[in-house]
């Protein structure tokens, strides 16, 4: 007997017996997170001093974190299911881009320096949180959900906190390596611009955007721009 012609109680038992068929978006995100982790572990074992500053590492960590965040109960009902589907698609795209990069064969002396590692690690962690928050704010346009709205706010706040922590670690690293903690180079200018944009997420004037939906749309657009800016800076 097929599930379509089964008794309602039998269909319920079949659904419980096949959780992968019911929760496939959740399962896909878990598998993608595991795949990202295994890929990173393989790189760490084959290249003990694999440069964490590489674009490939940025993409792998961001994809893994995005999938890991999506499986958390950030929203309820259909909003969470949509969130899982979108994040799975974005993470898969990041992994495909990562596969197009050749794994560097050289080693990096920075692999033994804690402050450099913390600085470079803050970038993919920030990117993963930014993408997750942007996806959530976009979904709030069609799926209003107070829990999702609250968690998107926390993810955006976490993005700025992680980036600032990376800047502090990078300043200490620069002081130890070059004798100064700040200089107006292109990299420092981009970091300052990036952080100001992360702060702007929380300061949209209500006189221009009076409704919560307008605020959410503006936040979604800005966070998407931040994610594209960071990816474009590394890929182009």
UniProtKB/TrEMBL annotation:
Keywords: Membrane, Transmembrane, Transmembrane helix. The keyword Transmembrane helix applies. The chain crosses the membrane at residues 21-41, 53-76, 83-102, 114-140, 152-175, 187-206. This is Uncharacterized protein.
């Amino acid at each position: 007997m097929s599930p379509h012609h089964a008794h309602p109680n039998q269909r319920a038992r079949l659904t419980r017996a096949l959780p992968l068929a019911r929760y496939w978006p959740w399962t896909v995100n878990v598998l993608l997170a595991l795949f990202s982790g295994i890929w990173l572990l393989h790189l760490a074992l084959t290249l003990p001093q694999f440069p964490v500053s590489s674009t490939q590492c940025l993409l792998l960590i961001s994809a893994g974190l995005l999938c890991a965040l999506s499986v958390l109960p950030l929203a309820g009902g259909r909003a969470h299911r949509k969130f899982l589907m979108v994040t799975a698609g974005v993470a898969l795209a990041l992994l495909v881009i990562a596969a197009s990069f050749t794994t560097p064969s050289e080693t990096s002396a920075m692999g033994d320096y804690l402050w450099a590692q913390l600085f470079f690690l803050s970038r993919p962690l920030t990117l993963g949180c930014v993408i997750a928050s942007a996806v959530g704010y976009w979904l709030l346009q069609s799926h209003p959900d107070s829990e999702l709205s609250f968690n998107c706010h926390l993810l955006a706040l976490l993005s700025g906190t992680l980036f600032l922590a990376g800047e502090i670690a990078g300043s200490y690293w620069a002081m130890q390596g070059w004798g100064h903690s700040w200089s107006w180079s292109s990299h420092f200018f981009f970091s300052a611009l990036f952080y100001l944009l992360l702060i702007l997420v929380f300061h949209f004037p209500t006189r221009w955007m009076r409704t919560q939906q307008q605020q959410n749309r503006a936040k979604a657009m800005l966070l998407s721009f931040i994610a594209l800016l960071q990816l474009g800076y590394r890929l182009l």
